[in-house]
Amino acid sequence: MKGFIDLKIGIIGGGQLGKMIAQEAKKMGLFVIILDPTPDSPASEIANKQIVSHFNDKGKIEELINQCDITTFEIEHINTEILKKLENRGKEIYPASRVLEIIKDKSKQKEFLDEFNIPTSNWKKVDHNALDDEIPAFPVVQKACRGGYDGRGVYVIKNKENIENRLKTESFLEEYIDFEKELAIMVARNKQGEIKCYPLVEMEFDEEKNICDMIIAPARVDESIYEEASKIAVKCVENLNGVGVFGIEMFLTKDKRILVNEIAPRVHNSGHYTIEGCVTSQFEQHLRCIMGLPLGSTELIIPTVVINILGEKNHCGTADYIGVEETLSIPGVSIHIYGKKEIMPYRKMGHVTIVDKEIDKAIEKAYKVKKTLKAVSKEAKHEE
Question: What are the ATP-grasp domain coordinates in residue numbering (predicted)?
């Protein structure tokens, strides 16, 4: 039987999430192999080995899994057929291919939520070529069944004129929710079924970029909202029979109902605050889950705010950063640069964590950081 130190962990995906999982694995002395199409992916800086491959290459995925004792992933858009085949041969893959098949198709997610009476917005599958006949009222949200992330694959149809700009792909229509807050909660469940929730957080979105702009932990809501959100999130993960860390995104409606928006079967941007803010980070916790170890404490040590470092508008080329020194002069600030070599407008290049004993002061510092720290291209800087 292999000892703990001899275990090999496989990660499908070498982006920032894979990198941060790999960092925790290396702290534990584990051997890490990643699979990613980019040779110099962020996680390649940390992992022992990288297999360069697309996420749908069955042969390369099998090569990775056969070399590892336990395999996980940081991205949903993976060939699940080969995962299922290897699971049937006894390979350990978490979360399971069955879970991934439900989650990576957002219409199947909605079917799952309805099946288990988990509150979510009203929806219906549609033919994107005939939306004129399908929309009962405006505004309405069109979502692509597959392939959407970071705001992509979602289009708000505000009026009849917007229909011509619809998503030209398999999709569904979803009730537009006039919400009070967007919330998220990370849930961890290990192989033995032990389950824990992290604190509930608020998510603020940049409407222009259509991407999460700020995470505030803890959410500024009544305790009853936290308890109800935790109960719903646990129900999601238990009914999926999921193993790992899951991000559950929710709406708090103006009449105080909680509706599940989407489920992420992996570590998530809304859980980055756990690195500095909690006893156990979501990345260490994910490893504990998939290895069958006892779960760590999810206690929030200090109020925490996270902002994403996004590529500046009109900046493409070799990545660089300005305002680092001024940002680090602010007490309680930590900068996380992901190591992506190329910058593109609004691409996630890193994040900043701000901790303070008072959440309002942490938010105030976060707005200062947003004005100070910028991800830019070296080429654009040279032109200036």
Answer: 110-291
